[in-house]
Amino acid sequence: MRFWSTGFLSASMLHPALAERDGPFERRREAAVEAYPDLQRQLQNPLARLLVLPTVFEYDDGGGANGSGKAYTFRLGPRIPFQLTDDWHAISKTELTWRAQNDVVPGTQQEGLGDLVQTFFFSPDRSLAWDVYWGLGPTFVVPTATRDSLGSQLFSAGPSFGFFRQRDRLTTGLILSHLWSVAGPSSAGRVDTTRIEPLLAYTFPTASTIALGAELSYSWRAEQWTGPLELRLSQLTLIRDQPIQWGAGVRAFLFQQTGEPEWGAFLTLSFPIESPRWRLD
Asked: What are phi and psi of 40, to 5 degrees?
């Protein structure tokens, strides 16, 4: 049942014939396509020069030492571009989380803020040949978690590299990063982790997108992989003339390491913001 509802959502989003063509949803979608014909495709590219406020509501099931843990997470991830020179710009990506979990630590409940993750990408204004975009910069993890079980307790830092190609309606690419812990209590251990985030996305003429992605991490200390494979669906629409991207998805955790959830689902809302410097069209 958990996948049936997502499948129905996919059908109604990607096949307009299944929706009421004269209904308000269809009219708003058509207005979004007309007003912002390329915005949905740009939103798939983390290196695009867009001022955008993404929010994510997540549910994960089957985590913890006994496999019965449940976790609810809200993520806020503002992405802000800054012009540096005539040829270069920077993109600030901040991730703030609030999490509530039950039985992840057996027999207990926790609720509070997670660690803050801050990344800066420095990227040229113009794409390379073959419509390739790239960016390079540092990532920092600040131990802002209000409970030890909700964060790493460590300050970590390392490099990040993004590489994306957008050709016609297809977006492909990845973000590669590595983190080392540089400060924090010795009792929290150490961080030495590589993270890989590949993406394959296709945007339809209806401003609907279906994407396959992953958020994989490899711990060099534990010598093991963790992370999910995700199926994501999203749609651009207009509400009071403001473009909004909404979406949903499911994920399966591939490696089933101890404490890792079995599956999860999520809802997304992203708010592109037009400014005098950064125009949505």
From this structure: -60, -40
